[in-house]
C-alpha cells in the first residue's frame, strides 16, 4: 500500500527558479515545448515555451548528446544543460545543452506559425484553430492579463469583507426576462440558462451582507457584432446596507484602482509585450444619462434619436467627450430611464421616470451595469403590477423581500469587454479564450 502525502518535489527547474542568476554555472533539468528551432549549422538555438515565457537553449554539435534533426516544433522535451548568463536571451540566461529527451512528438506540422511574434492571420482562422493559436506568446499574454483582472477583482472584494458565492446557471426564469434566453428541457420542466446571477446574489445579501461571483452568463441574442458574445464571464458583486447607489460606484472605482496597480506590479511582461498603457482610474467622472446625451450631442452635432437608451455611437461620443474634457478613459452614466431598466431597479424618488442606476463606459464601451435595488416588499410588488408581471412567477425570489432585506445594490462587469478595451482590441472575441457567438459552438 502507498500513501500520497502531498506534492512531490521534482528535480526539474522552472523560470522562476533562475531569478537573479540563482543557478548560474549549475547543471539543471528543464521541461517544455519546442517553440522554435533556429539551426545555424554546428550551433542551433532551441527555444522552449514555458508557462512563464520562453527559454533559450543552445545546441552545440559534439557537445550535445542528441541529433538535432530528430527535434521538431511542438515536441515536448526535457533538457539537461548548464546555465549561463546571456542578456540577449529572453529571460537573461540560456541553457547550454548536454542532452535532450523527447517526451512526445506532434503527429503533424503546425497549421499556423505560432512561434511568430504576431499571428498574421484572420480572426476567423485564429478562432477556428484556437487550441493551437493560443500557444502564440502574444495571444496567451492577453489571457494572463485577464487572469490579473479577475485576481484583482477577487482580492479587492475579499479585502472589503465580501464572501464569494457560486450560484446556479440552470434556472427556472431569467433575471432580466424577455425572449433572449436559452431554453432547455430540465427533466420535463421548462428551464433556462441564467442571464445573470441577479436574483441569487440579492438573496445572498440577506445572508452574508456582501457577496461576489465570477461566472459565465448566457444571452440568446442574435447579435453578430464586435461587442457581443452569447456566453461571457460576468464579474458580479452585491452589497447591503448602502446609503445610495453611489456606494456601489465607489466600490467599483476602488476595485479598478486595485486591479490596475496589480497589473502594473505583477504583469509588466505581458503589458509590455502587448504595448498596453494602463488607464488612470484615480478619479472617474459621473454624469446623468440625459445630461451625457446632451453634452455629446451639442459638442459633436449628433441628433438625439433615442431618449431612453444609449446607442453604440453615442457611447463612443460620450467616451470621447470625457477623455477630451476630463482626461478620463472611464465615465459613469447615471439615472437611466426606468422603462429601460429591470423591474428590481429602484426608481429615483425625486423623479420616478429615472432610476438610481448606472453604466460604466470604458473608452466609449459599456463594461458595467449596476445600481440600487428595490428592497421593500410592497414597493417591488407595486412595480411588478405596474409592468403587468405576475408575482407567482418569481415567488421564491420575492420571499427575500417578504421576510426583510437591507438597502442594497450591486453590479455586473463584462470581463471580455473590459479586457478588450484594456488591450485596445477591436473585437470582443479577441478577449474570449473560446468565444461563443451566433455561429460558433466549437472548438
Automatic annotation (TrEMBL):
<feature type="region of interest" description="Aspartate">
    <location>
        <begin position="198"/>
        <end position="201"/>
    </location>
</feature>
<keyword id="KW-0067">ATP-binding</keyword>
<dbReference type="GO" id="GO:0016740">
    <property type="term" value="F:transferase activity"/>
</dbReference>
<keyword id="KW-0436">Ligase</keyword>
<comment type="subunit">
    <text>Homodimer.</text>
</comment>
<feature type="binding site">
    <location>
        <begin position="414"/>
        <end position="417"/>
    </location>
    <ligand>
        <name>ATP</name>
    </ligand>
</feature>
<keyword id="KW-0547">Nucleotide-binding</keyword>
<dbReference type="GO" id="GO:0017101">
    <property type="term" value="C:aminoacyl-tRNA synthetase multienzyme complex"/>
</dbReference>
<feature type="binding site">
    <location>
        <position position="366"/>
    </location>
    <ligand>
        <name>ATP</name>
    </ligand>
</feature>
<feature type="binding site">
    <location>
        <begin position="219"/>
        <end position="221"/>
    </location>
    <ligand>
        <name>ATP</name>
    </ligand>
</feature>
<keyword id="KW-0030">Aminoacyl-tRNA synthetase</keyword>
<dbReference type="GO" id="GO:0006422">
    <property type="term" value="P:aspartyl-tRNA aminoacylation"/>
</dbReference>
<dbReference type="InterPro" id="IPR004365">
    <property type="entry name" value="NA-bd_OB_tRNA"/>
</dbReference>
<dbReference type="GO" id="GO:0140096">
    <property type="term" value="F:catalytic activity, acting on a protein"/>
</dbReference>
<dbReference type="Pfam" id="PF00152">
    <property type="entry name" value="tRNA-synt_2"/>
</dbReference>
<feature type="binding site">
    <location>
        <position position="219"/>
    </location>
    <ligand>
        <name>L-aspartate</name>
    </ligand>
</feature>
<keyword id="KW-0963">Cytoplasm</keyword>
<feature type="binding site">
    <location>
        <position position="176"/>
    </location>
    <ligand>
        <name>L-aspartate</name>
    </ligand>
</feature>
<dbReference type="InterPro" id="IPR012340">
    <property type="entry name" value="NA-bd_OB-fold"/>
</dbReference>
<feature type="binding site">
    <location>
        <position position="369"/>
    </location>
    <ligand>
        <name>L-aspartate</name>
    </ligand>
</feature>
<dbReference type="InterPro" id="IPR004364">
    <property type="entry name" value="Aa-tRNA-synt_II"/>
</dbReference>
<dbReference type="InterPro" id="IPR045864">
    <property type="entry name" value="aa-tRNA-synth_II/BPL/LPL"/>
</dbReference>
<keyword id="KW-0648">Protein biosynthesis</keyword>
<feature type="binding site">
    <location>
        <begin position="227"/>
        <end position="229"/>
    </location>
    <ligand>
        <name>ATP</name>
    </ligand>
</feature>
<dbReference type="InterPro" id="IPR006195">
    <property type="entry name" value="aa-tRNA-synth_II"/>
</dbReference>
<dbReference type="GO" id="GO:0003723">
    <property type="term" value="F:RNA binding"/>
</dbReference>
<dbReference type="GO" id="GO:0005829">
    <property type="term" value="C:cytosol"/>
</dbReference>
<dbReference type="GO" id="GO:0004815">
    <property type="term" value="F:aspartate-tRNA ligase activity"/>
</dbReference>
<dbReference type="InterPro" id="IPR002312">
    <property type="entry name" value="Asp/Asn-tRNA-synth_IIb"/>
</dbReference>
<feature type="site" description="Important for tRNA non-discrimination">
    <location>
        <position position="90"/>
    </location>
</feature>
<feature type="domain" description="Aminoacyl-transfer RNA synthetases class-II family profile">
    <location>
        <begin position="143"/>
        <end position="443"/>
    </location>
</feature>
<protein>
    <recommendedName>
        <fullName>Aspartate--tRNA(Asp/Asn) ligase</fullName>
        <ecNumber>6.1.1.23</ecNumber>
    </recommendedName>
</protein>
<dbReference type="InterPro" id="IPR004523">
    <property type="entry name" value="Asp-tRNA_synthase_2"/>
</dbReference>
<dbReference type="GO" id="GO:0005524">
    <property type="term" value="F:ATP binding"/>
</dbReference>
<dbReference type="Pfam" id="PF01336">
    <property type="entry name" value="tRNA_anti-codon"/>
</dbReference>
<comment type="similarity">
    <text>Belongs to the class-II aminoacyl-tRNA synthetase family. Type 2 subfamily.</text>
</comment>
<dbReference type="GO" id="GO:0050560">
    <property type="term" value="F:aspartate-tRNA(Asn) ligase activity"/>
</dbReference>
<comment type="function">
    <text>Aspartyl-tRNA synthetase with relaxed tRNA specificity since it is able to aspartylate not only its cognate tRNA(Asp) but also tRNA(Asn). Reaction proceeds in two steps: L-aspartate is first activated by ATP to form Asp-AMP and then transferred to the acceptor end of tRNA(Asp/Asn).</text>
</comment>
<feature type="binding site">
    <location>
        <position position="373"/>
    </location>
    <ligand>
        <name>L-aspartate</name>
    </ligand>
</feature>
